[in-house]
Hints:
Elements: H1 4-24, H2 30-33, H3 39-64, H4 68-85, H5 93-96, H6 101-131
Helix pairs in contact: 1-3, 1-6, 3-4, 4-6
Amino acid sequence: MIKGPMVRLFCLVIAILEILITIRGYEIIYLFRMNTPSLSFSIITKILAVLFFTLNWVGAFGLYKERYWGFIISYLAIIFSTIAFSMSYLPGLHFIMFGPLKYRFVFLLIGNFCVLAFTLFVHRNLCKLQIN
């Protein structure tokens, strides 16, 4: 079990990773400008983009405040960002990903799974601290 100040620090680290992914994901803003022949496709991509930013920012705020709902939203944000936009939560991971596309996605899955496991670890330790 990790101590209280370390749990706070780890929550801040995960919150910073969530904010960084939204900053690195600025290309998603271009989805708002995209004109497609299909109106339904345009609406769906805009909803996905808003969901991406909302989940990550609200999750980061919840982790900063060390709230239970912040962890739940962060779990959803990590899974959603991995599936919908193939974005890595580990800064610099996209620089070392090489080879065919299927191997890059494996690196991405492994990296984001590690972030998800770390978030779960911090959440578990925070729950133990609140019980004691």
